[in-house]
Amino acid sequence: MDASMIFAQFMSGLSRGMMLFLIASGLSLIFGVMNILNFAHAALWLVGAYFCYTFWYLMQGTALGLWLSIILAAIALAAVGWIIEVVLIRRVYNRELSEQLLLTYALVLVIDDLIKIVWGVEDKLIERPPVVADPVFIFGAPLDSYFVFVIIVGFGVAIGLWWFLKKTRYGHIIRASVYSREMVSALGIPIPRIYTGVFAMGIFIAGLAGAIQAPVGSITLGMDMAVIIQAFCVVVIGGLGSLLGTFVASLVVGEVYAFSILFWPEGALVLIFIVTALVLIIRPWGLFGTPVRT
Amino acid sequence: MKIKVTIIACMLIVLGGWVYASSSVAAEPYNLGVDLAITGTGALYCKDGVDAIKLAVGEINAKGGFMGKHPVKLFIRDSHTKPDIAVREAKDLILRDKVRTILGTYSSACAVAIKPVCKEYKVLHIPAISNSEGITLTHFSPYTYQVVPNSYMQAKAVVLGVAELAKKKGWTNYITIASDYEWGRSTQQNTVELLKKFAPNLKLKKEFWPRLGETQFTSYITAIMAQKPDFVIGSVASKDNVAWMKQAKAYGFFDKIPYPGSLISVSELILQAKTLTRGLIGLCRAPFFAHLDVPMMANFVKNFRAKYNRYPSDWAVMEYDAVYALKQGIDKAGSIDSDKVKDALKGATIDTTRGKLFFRKIDNQLSCSSYIGVVSDDPKYPFPIYHDLVEVKGPDSWRPEAEILDARSKEK
Amino acid sequence: MNRYSWLGLIFIATLILPHVIGEFWIHVAIEILIFGLFAVSFNMLFGYMGQLSFGHAAYFGVGAYATGLLMLKTSVPLPVCLVFSMVAAGVAALIFGYFCVRLTGIYFAILTMAFGQLIYYIIFQWYSFTGGDNGLQGIVPPGWLLNVKNYYYFTIFIVTAALIVMWFISESPFGYTMRAIRDNTERTRFIGINVRKYMLINFVVAGMFAGLAGGLLGPFTRSIAPDLCNWQQSGVPVFMTVIGGPLGFFGPIIGSVIYTFLFAFITGFTEYWPLTIGLVIIFVVLYMPGGILGLVHEKMDFFKFKHLTNDIDKGLEKET
User: Fold this and answer.
1) Which residue among C110, C238, C277 sits closest to A109, beta carbon to beta carbon?
2) How many CA atoms does the CB half-sphere of C14 hold within 13 Å?
3) Which member of A82, B218, B379, C319 lies 3.0 to 4.6 Å from A12 by CB, making a disulfide possible if both were Cys?
């Protein structure tokens, strides 16, 4: 076991973490602003992957087919997210937590079956474009070249979100609405429109994440079930509502998983839940969240 | 008013459901149950299997059904690749649909799970995709007939080949990667146990157990490559196998490390036609191209292609054989009664697409072969097939009867 | 007709049921009873204490495995196994509940879910003891219960006894303390009640009855799997309770009748059960927040069972 192989393991953990971040960031954004834990986030992520497949399939043979499909899938999913927000989510803004959770969980069931109806039960396979077919070698360690792309996109999304929230006017409005809904609407800015925009943005990122996941293996039904729990854990560990927390937690979880393969393979999955439980017990607001009374 | 209407509507629905459900099926048709993974990890293989079953049933019904007078009625249920759901569906099939035989399942764990249920309700059980040895070795059920080469047989076929290679190439250590569930565990265990017997100088360096349904193998790939083993033996389950091979290839895995004897069924040959590394030594269970000289196989391939516009995979072949095994059992027994059929099938020799084979009495295992070959392109087909095909016959590769009796005596 | 004589009539009807319906529907009826018990135990946390647990299936699963393992590996009689199930589930609930009750709201929900998944993965990975993902197969009930009608009466007996116990708990001062904690935790704390201790006791009791339900399931289905502990399974009692109505004692039972029957019925002719139940839940959440009981209570005065539904008015007040 030499240094270059440890580096390879580190990089595979990083790519796994970035994948997680792409999924969890939308979830964190939606919860941070709207205070709704969107159970259906991974189901929509999966729809994004299927969208990507369909676009890629239609554009097979064209040069930039895959890359275009990824963008198109994200946009298409954002549209779907927009519709869901207006039709369903809006009605439970002021309802109890249990009703919000139930609604979004029921949505998972509906979406998963709709995927089955529309795309069928067979796995979908996307061929990798030649540019990412071979491994690249960094410091002597082989690295899946597609994952380099994933890592870059992950950083891109993180920086993009940070810049959007901290530096643009829209970002300021959104952050203000977290502090005080009443003030923002008193200033004449309609809260529902902000929420719809935020939701659509969160789902856009989910679509991007799903589309990026699509060429990694095969796209199969039920992939979202394992993912949603991991996304919840990441958001909790990082701190509900903190994007920086989500970013850090995703990378940590990805690395823990990658290295536990080497030392405690059976425990890889258990470890994530133990950490989540510990965080909730010792510091419920997570690593970077704002301390709240529970 | 609205409430009254709702209540009456609900009561009508309940009444309707009860009437519909309790109207029992007449004894004339033969109710055949299928408990396969329509969704879940097994969906890839099961679709082919279900299509082959439908083809077989269509052929039989064209002649009037079993014994010419019992049209076959199919009831297909989804086991979701989960044992408890498979059991639930099996019970449903038996109690609600009154099936006499269940063809299934995909997952070995599911097959082991529904075995006792079928035994309790005296329903025939023919697995044609699941192949863990646990199905036939212990907790023997006289109602279960296995038409797939079981995990021991497959492992032995691989081991004999690998032991040869190891001697030739001077290998000394290896690593295993196997999906962490019944089939993966059973196969890996059998392989390691047999390797110790036939190539005692080989050392097992490390074992990797990705969970069933794993989609990202990168951490495993880098970990294995870091260990630099002489070769790797893989028992990764169907859907996961696709992801595993795709991702490993992207790391240049197969160029660096020999990967002999993993299960590359005809499904994978077709699905990964463009990307599969040629020259890999693979294992499969029932390749159609190995038996085109058998008229039953040639006909089956022709009809399957005509109906579905594609070539049949191993799973299609074996499910087709399963239906015809049942038919021959019924013909031999002269009755559709499951107890008589099971007695007729015991030790029986039947015609299959893979030739004339027989069921071994001690475990109801069909004497079918395992196939090892080199993945190569072939001008006759749009996908690679196996060349240099070695057929390891059933009786040469199954577990000796003495060991079976020994294992059973240790059961609770 | 006296309100309570309706209950008596329904009870007599359930006793006669196996003789008028087919064997398949007797199986369905047993499922309704087992999951009804599971859902009522969940409602002790949700309807009466006001906290949403998304990991209650863990205790259901622990109970199932306790009975399953005992029946497969020893010759302990079934009723004793059921007691063990309750104890095992209670112990698990005590260990995990200790941490859960220090949180409320969404943190409580997520922590219960995390612990539920933890138990699921422990059972899943501990292959040598629990059979891992193969589950436990071939669990056979004792001879006198092999006939499904007998198992049905056995289940009715156990479930009715459990429901009576839980009813008394819910109508006791302890039960009213729960309601107080639900309605106004701060004030309850101020009058000197150790809220955490009471919540923990309730959590353990709820866990024990979930374990009892789980114990009944194994010998019935002959097969149990780790999936009984996961979060999707935890959603089932939530669905049942919400459909039936969380603010009445029998709400979850009504929910179980509807859910289980619907499941058996719909899966008879379509595979799209998740779609169906998903749409039903969305409908119920948006238009029937008090569940069936809530609807009935609003529209039909005759069915106002004072003791059974004394919370519905208050609960519905909270909605507006």
Assistant:
1) C277
2) 19
3) B218
Distance set, CA B230 to CA B158, B174, B205, B373 (Å): 16, 6, 10, 20
Domain encompassing residue A143: 25-223
Which pLDDT value is given to residue A117? 92
**What secondary structure letter does DSSP report for C143?**
G
- What is the per-residue pLDDT across A22-67, written as a single tens digit (0 to 9) for each? 999 999 999 888 888 899 999 999 999 999 999 999 888 777 888 8
The residues in A 112-151 lying below 8 A from B, measured between CB atoms, are: 116, 121-123, 125, 127-128, 132-135, 141-147
One-letter amino acid of B305: R
Same domain membership, residue B187 and residue B74: no
Q: Nearest-CA neighbor of C42 among C153, C122, C116?
A: C116
Q: Are residues B239 and B378 in the same domain?
A: yes
What amino acid occupies position A253?
V
Q: Is the dihedral of CA B54, B57, B63, B65 positive or negative?
A: negative
Task: State which residue of chain C sits closest to B181, comparing Cα positions.
Answer: C133
Q: How many domains does chain C have?
A: 1
Give the residue numbers spanning the domain of B264: 152-287+371-397
| CA separation for the pair A131, A140 (Å, rounded) | 20
Q: What is the pLDDT of residues A241-262, one digit of tens each?
A: 788 999 999 999 999 888 887 7
Separation of alpha carbons C99 and B311, rounded Å = 57
Predicted local confidence at residue A1, as pLDDT: 57
Strands B203-208, B173-178: pairing kind: parallel
pLDDT, tens digit (0-9, with 9 covering 90-100), for C221-274: 888 989 999 999 999 999 999 999 998 899 999 999 999 999 988 888 888 899
For B78, the closest of C127, C227, C271 (CB atoms) is: C271
Residue C27, chain B, CB below 8 Å: the answer is yes
Contact B87 C221 (CB under 8 A): yes
Range with the poorest average pLDDT among A67-81, A179-193, B107-121, C71-85: A179-193
What pLDDT digit, counting tens, does each position of B268-286 carry? 888 888 888 888 889 999 9
Contact between A134 and B226 using a beta-carbon 8 Å cutoff: no
- Residue A293 within a domain: no
Report the chain B residue with the minimal C-alpha distance to residue C225. Answer: B84
Q: How far is B238 from chain A (nearest CA, A)?
A: 11
Neighbours of C246 (CB within 10 A): 29
Smallest CA-to-CA distance from B79 within C127, C281, A120, C225 is with C225
The H-assigned helical ranges of C135-194 are 148-171, 173-183, 185-190
Supply the CATH number for residue B245's domain. 3.40.50.2300
Cα C222 to Cα B90: distance, rounded to the nearest angstrom: 12
Whole-angstrom distance, CA of residue A259 vs CA of residue C36: 44
d(CA B152, CA C238): 45
